[in-house]
């Protein structure tokens, strides 16, 4: 057996083992993707079925569909998909989510990573084989020279009268051969050491991938993101020596928040950052010394960090988490005993793996958007029933006023868009009645804010705008439905009330001069906020001048 074959024999087994392990790992990620998507489609189906029960007039042809999500009476078969079904008006309705794009992206990324890893291993193997081959050739030459010298001594007896110069020359040749043997032996030992080091690195990678696979296999897709993050952090800390604590920080609603911690108090989870520059775990990647952490801590959060115990950190290793090239968080592995944690860089792959779970959570936001579009469709159906484009006009103008007053523009737009969602249950007789309403009809009209609140408050992601909708008919003098005074009413609600009144008169054919005359009368009567009316007048006049 040749020397190169002897050295690389065990690596060939490791190469095969790494391939099998990677395939198992890829399969588990694929299974988790399908499991998550199946769970999300079932949730969406339940909510869709509940929403359809509110409006019997609405036919299934109006149901909102997207590129990836299909809702139909026929179960379309796709290459990769998950589906759910329910009964509606005596027929089966199928909700189908096409996963072809996600599977292709996951497969391509996994293949690129696998080929990259195999390329590194192959390059190392070729380098070692080349060195060993050169050393083997040198040793073969040395062996030939030694045999020749041995034959020379055996079959050519040294003449007693050999000159001293010839003996000296022979001695120099022997010494030269000895130097070559020592030098080549050292090179061979260095190559063997390099092979052993490469072998150890591969074993470490194998161990880490095995641990990652075991962690992912035990994750429950139905768990909250906080529970998943806590489990992953605890398991990850157990893998590395000298890691005593850690945390996972993620971006949610444009703020950074700690979702998991080990070694600190739960007060850490109460901290929220609005600016990336305040978050050390976002600014840095890899090894970070304890001194850097202490010097970089924002003065506002310095005392809080001391309370949770972060002053004990001597060093930390930050594993970044990216979602679609955006850094959305980090896994921090902290040491209270070691000034410089020695953690291999390949652990950063774990951040990419965990990022896949976050991508699935991001998909939840797309479903939230879908639910909002369905609700918006109900509101627009009310506008169509009365023959006016009202809600969208109120939303767009309210958004402009929100920018002027420095409140959340998108939240104001959403609240204004859905401010009349409660009217979906009113009959056409009341909505289209041209004359004066009876007292009973007025009560039904007033109740639309309560009904709208009850609809929106059912959704966790709409709870904040549900209160804006609830109070959008409150008067500044406290004589409204709930008796709130001007400053107690959310500013977004006051904005929507003024814009709603503006477009109501606009739809009746009044000109702007008459409209603002009436609006200022409502200000004097204690109904509207003067500041909002004044800013609205500026916007309308500016638009006319343009």
TrEMBL record:
<feature type="transmembrane region" description="Helical">
    <location>
        <begin position="15"/>
        <end position="36"/>
    </location>
</feature>
<keyword id="KW-0812">Transmembrane</keyword>
<feature type="domain" description="HD-GYP">
    <location>
        <begin position="364"/>
        <end position="546"/>
    </location>
</feature>
<dbReference type="InterPro" id="IPR006675">
    <property type="entry name" value="HDIG_dom"/>
</dbReference>
<feature type="transmembrane region" description="Helical">
    <location>
        <begin position="103"/>
        <end position="123"/>
    </location>
</feature>
<dbReference type="InterPro" id="IPR037522">
    <property type="entry name" value="HD_GYP_dom"/>
</dbReference>
<dbReference type="InterPro" id="IPR029016">
    <property type="entry name" value="GAF-like_dom_sf"/>
</dbReference>
<keyword id="KW-1133">Transmembrane helix</keyword>
<dbReference type="Pfam" id="PF01966">
    <property type="entry name" value="HD"/>
</dbReference>
<dbReference type="InterPro" id="IPR003607">
    <property type="entry name" value="HD/PDEase_dom"/>
</dbReference>
<keyword id="KW-0472">Membrane</keyword>
<protein>
    <submittedName>
        <fullName>Phosphohydrolase</fullName>
    </submittedName>
</protein>
<dbReference type="InterPro" id="IPR006674">
    <property type="entry name" value="HD_domain"/>
</dbReference>
